[in-house]
Model the fold of this input.
Amino acid sequence: MISHSTTNTLKFHLQILGALKPEAWLQIEQLKRSLQLKPNESYIRKEGCLAYVAQGILKEYDPSYRKRPAIINFIGTDQCFVTRKQNQHNYIKACTPTLLYYW
Done:
């Protein structure tokens, strides 16, 4: 279950972008999916998906034209990321136990 402080943090981040109606927040909560990742487990990216790291650290790899994929990004607690067509091939693995919410 989502903790109250995590809910408040996510809501705060969204309110920074603009006003958030109660109906919109209710729909965000209803459509939210959660995923627990252990270290070295992967998050399967789908185009158009928005994800929020509630707890933990993720690393993003780019396997393009490399024998060994390069780490190109770290995504930490309270950060969001969107999967677009151009970065869908970059895969994501957990560095630490991670709680991820996605839409």
